[in-house]
Write a structure and sequence with these properties.
By secondary structure, the chain is mostly beta strands. It has one domain: Beta-galactosidase, Chain A, domain 5. A hairpin with a 3-residue loop joins strand 1 and strand 2. It is globular. 38% of the residues are buried.
């Protein structure tokens, strides 16, 4: 962390879990279970992120530009929230809430009145991360949203063990692969069998594995004879798994509501698969819960 991030950092702890969150991106920096670290440390040699929040798009904008009606502007991959400084608006012994509202720089990219709040909360051995997008303007708010946390691979103490992902619904969701930064209509055979996927770095040679439908609302990422992380998702119907094919020591478990622009489609934000159009005065809520086990 930078010096400014260290000064802004909030640490929460109970008898089981400890986590640190910074104001930049409202991003989690550490997640420890009984003193053992589970979160990727953000090494720049592979990927500097740790657990970014994706808003108001998931994935890149076609040509680096989004369109909203007649409006257009440049926008970086996964949107601006991950590079924005949030305000700390609430904190107690078990939780903290950070909030982002438009700055002039944000309005130049996204001309809407909104509030994005991200709450990290400890509940015994489970961490809940809850995001709320509130439309505080007079126009319909178009957006996509996602979480992008990265966890150690191999998991602590399981360096020589096979690692896997098990879907709770035991589904075999079809696989989508991004082509030219777009989401094609065709689907590939599922890499899951009865909900089980044995992980291999070679699976990420073609970038992320994206499952637009059918992955369900809960999964476990674990190591044979080792630790695990159980996830439950709320209002996040799309799933991606991502790492680097070079054997990067992390796995991103990414629940989304919104995806990349379709192949052949316009750059309109509201046309992206899974995008939401939130009426004035309404709030959309997204969450994931993760329970580490040693």
């Amino acid at each position: 962390m930078s010096r400014q991030q260290q000064e802004d950092a909030i640490t929460l702890a109970n008898d089981t879990l400890e986590l640190t969150v910074v104001a930049l991106g409202a991003e989690m920096q550490n997640l420890r279970c009984q003193g053992t670290e589970f979160l990727w440390h953000g090494g720049a040699a592979y990927w500097s992120g740790r657990a970014p929040v994706l808003f108001p798009i998931v994935g890149p904008a076609p040509g680096g530009v989004i369109e909203i009606g007649a409006f257009s502007a440049e926008m970086a991959q996964h949107g601006f929230a991950r590079q924005s400084v949030f305000d700390l608006v609430a904190q107690d012994a078990a939780s903290c809430t950070h909030r982002l509202t438009p700055t002039p720089q944000i309005r130049a990219q996204y001309p809407f009145n909104f509030a994005l709040s991200v709450t990290h909360r400890l509940d015994g051995g489970t961490l809940a991360v809850v995001a709320e997008v509130e439309n505080i303007g007079a126009e319909t708010l178009p957006f996509g949203f996602g979480f992008h946390p990265a966890f150690l691979w191999p998991l602590p103490g399981a360096e020589d063990q096979p690692h896997w992902v098990q879907l709770e619904n035991r589904g075999e969701p079809p696989l989508a692969r991004i082509r030219d930064k777009r989401l094609p209509e065709d689907r590939l055979p599922s890499p899951f069998s009865d909900g089980y996927l044995a992980l291999d770095p070679a699976q990420f040679e073609d970038d992320a594995m994206i499952f637009p439908e059918g992955a369900g609302q809960a999964l476990t990422y674990g190591a044979e004879n080792g630790p695990s992380l159980r996830f439950a998702f709320e209002a996040l119907p799309h799933l991606a798994l991502w790492s680097k094919p070079s054997g990067a020591p992390f796995l991103c478990v990414e629940p989304w509501h919104g995806m990349h622009a379709r192949t052949g489609a316009s750059a309109q934000l509201g046309d992206r698969p899974g995008s939401l159009k939130l009426p004035p005065g309404q709030t959309a809520r997204f969450a994931y819960h993760v329970t580490p086990t040693l």
